[in-house]
Amino acid sequence: MAENSFTDQGPRSRGGIAPRPLFAVGAVLFGSFLANFDSRLTSVGLPDLRGAFSLGFDEGAWLSTAAIGSQIFIAPTVAWLATAFGLRRILGVPSLLYALVSLVIPFVRDYTALITLSIVHGLLLGMFVPATLMIVFRNLPIRWWLPAIAIYSIRVGFALDTGSSMAGFYVDHLGWQWLYWQGVVLAPLMGLMVYLGTPPEPVNQEVLRDADWGGMLLLGTGVSMIYAGLDQGNRLDWLESGTVAALLIGGGLLLVAFLINETMVRRPWAHVSVLFSRNVGLALIVILLYTLTSLSNSSLVPNFLATVVQLRPEQTGELLVIYGALPMFVMVPVSIFLLRHVDPRGVLIVGLSAFAIANLLGTQLTHDWARGDFVAIVILQSIGQAFTLLPIIIIAVANSDVTRATAFAAYIQITRLGGAEIGVALMGTWLRVREQVHSNFLGQHLENGSADVVKILGRMSASFASHGAAAAMARATGSLAALVQREANVLAYIDGFWLTFWLAIAALGFVALMTRAPPGPFTPVPLGSMQALIRRLGLSRR
Known about the structure:
Blueprint: H1 21-44, H2 46-53, H3 57-74, H4 78-85, H5 87-104, H6 111-125, H7 128-139, H8 145-174, H9 178-197, H10 205-209, H11 213-236, H12 242-264, H13 278-293, H14 295-307, H15 313-325, H16 328-341, H17 344-362, H18 375-398, H19 405-443, H20 451-462, H21 469-512, H22 527-541
């Protein structure tokens, strides 16, 4: 592992080997998947939740912001909390509280109480993924690290591809309440896995004594405020809204204050020195670019099918499950095998190239595209999910000081969760602005009274003749406006695919700047060396 000259700054991670590694891996599986499934289900099912809770559009938007913003607030601090209090305390009790809150929320009708419980729900949910990642490095034998990190990394793509189908199934067959109630079943199971798979740990009094509470509050509050401003910016017209401006400016000032704080306190919680490795910094940039380019999978494909093709989530989900989620069961083992024997940079290039090709194919879409036309794109995105995030994490960890995983995990979580949610907000704005631009350009070619427009309106109004002349012309005008809006949306989604394509190309450029990682647990064993070892073992037995 690369040594960091600042290892005396911040708490050092430590932990005993898990007595039952399979249960520890189970905890990673349950925790990471539960967090991503929950976030995906509530975002896909938000229209149903608005109807169930009798919320207006604005109230529903703040409900989503509060739930995700609270996750972003707590996520960077979880690794420190696990170091101080132990994983059993950080995951065990919160899992039971999370189950209780998930059970209660569907029965709440007061908006203030609903927002409050959603914030608590998000705080508890935000603890699961970072804490389960700590299980890997603190409690699992080194030989278990790669498959455990693989489980951690594929949860994103798997949840994105199956979330739409599950949300549709819950709403149509079990009831919208199960968007929350799945946590009632899964969270206690995760807590049980943690209890059985991790050793008991005493409270780390040394870490508590030197706690950098101010730094934690500054970073968490700053990032969550920036997310809230970006999430609401698309709805409130960005800096035209005092609320959005206050959130963005206030969040930025808090982040500056955090950086100043980390240089002044005696034992900083997440000193930026943990990033003073070339490959670590580049890996975090690539993680951010990966989250943005993967928006083609999480946002562009399902939203195009919903907006232009008018499919419901469960109809879109069938495509994503069959051609997106299921191939991962084959691709992830292949990815693990390659990472054991090939430089992770090569695997990462394959994954980002798959995303780039998928996004380039998406730039060819038209309004005639149906669900089946996206099969090749979704398969390539599945390859990208399996071959991208896992090698990025391996590269970052292989070049960092694992004993300082507490500080490093803070930046990983900011990049992982903050980058993903901020990317969704920015992509929504990009699509809205591009749709308005294309709608304006298309409208300039539809001059009132021109021969072509009159001819089109006459042909359309003939199909509405039974409604009367005046109503027929009004309906024909409305239909023509709908066609213009449809084509503007198609062009906006093409621009979205172009954006994600160039983000993938930029990520490949940063990968090219990476150097080989120092020797360590993740150093690949060349296939030729492995074969030679097998031959030597065979000769020795003779």
